[in-house]
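User: For my dataset I need records formatted as: sequence, then structure tokens, nothing else. Please produce one.
Assistant:
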Amino acid sequence: MKINAEFKNVLWLILDKVLLLLLNIFIGVKVAFHYGPAEYGLFEYAVSIETIICILLTLVDPRVVKKKYNSLRNDLSIIRSVTITKLALSIMVLIFGVVFLFFIKNENRQFRVIFSLLLINTFLINITFGHENYFEYHLKSKIPVLSNNASKVASLVFQLFSMALGYPVFFIAVALLAGNAIRILIVLYLFRKEFGTFGFITEIHDNKNAIGIIKESAPLAIAAAASIIYMKTDQLMLGMMMGKSEVGIYSFAVKLVTVTGILIQPIQVTLFPRMKNLYLKDRKKYFEYYETLTGIITLSCLFIFLFIWLLPNQLFLYIIAESYAQSITIFKVLIIGIFFMYVAIFRSSHYTIIGETRVMAISQILSCFLNIALNILLISRYGLLGASLATITTQFLSLILFDFFIPNGKRVSLIELHSIFYSLYPPIILKRLHRNIN
């Protein structure tokens, strides 16, 4: 029964990603084509800066929150504490954003409008963070999936109307605001229907919940912050060293490559409870399960990504505007980094379960500085290609190799390295799968 629930949950999470993929292809990508690399690049440049300011929000990690649930009465208190904490952090983000706008002088009015709207949107996103997290914990991802996709459809329809009426690019941010307002109403309605409350008012008022979650999330937050910085460093440095058009081309490639990673989050979220229980009951079976799944996922991704790599660039030009032709090569380079992400798909879950999240923090901090250095070196020499090479080099080192030299990380690194080598000889992985089934 539990496995069946997990299977249904992962299907709903995959459906969420697939629907978003289709929407991005048929509507989202149209935004990039309509406004062109320069205006689209300006929008993505604003998104990159706002995303970095939002690293404060990582102080409440969803995996840590899920570890605190045990009964509905207590859980509602946690949801309330998490919601208040997230909104307080969102207000801090808003303040930092306003201060940033006050000090910058070289950006135009449209950039300032986009940036301000994105800050407000971040506040709206976090109103129902605790509610959606609780649905996922109970393997009821169907509910947040439906609400998220309903809001995305509304937002993207609004974007289409904006383009048809010739509105400027900042109306894309307005559309995001409208979509999230709809999402909030749907999630709160469904939460009350499912649990009999909106989750904001509870009998228990324990501020220690929020403090405990922040303390436990801190190492993960450091790792996430470093990850966000190095993932967004490319766009920022391209904007500063080259121009907004290059940011647009590179961001379009990132949008395409994100599609190939649609399964990562659903698999992580769904298998986390199972991995946690297995670790507590039988460590040996836990690591066998870990190795087998990592090997299967690595092998599958190797074949899929090799197929994509071998597709001729000319084929992509049938669906991509000529102004974004350079993004095809960047996409094929960045897909190597997505492969590394699949290889390390259970890494963060493992460190969370064993209480060694500091390993991720250390490796991410190191990778953050490395990526900045590589971007400075490679963008000046190779431009867009240099930025993509800096990213995949950092991803390999941070996700796989750095752990080998960190206490309690060596075993994880070896599992990931072995899965890469074994994927070149599939019978080894298939033999392990057969042994686990039997």
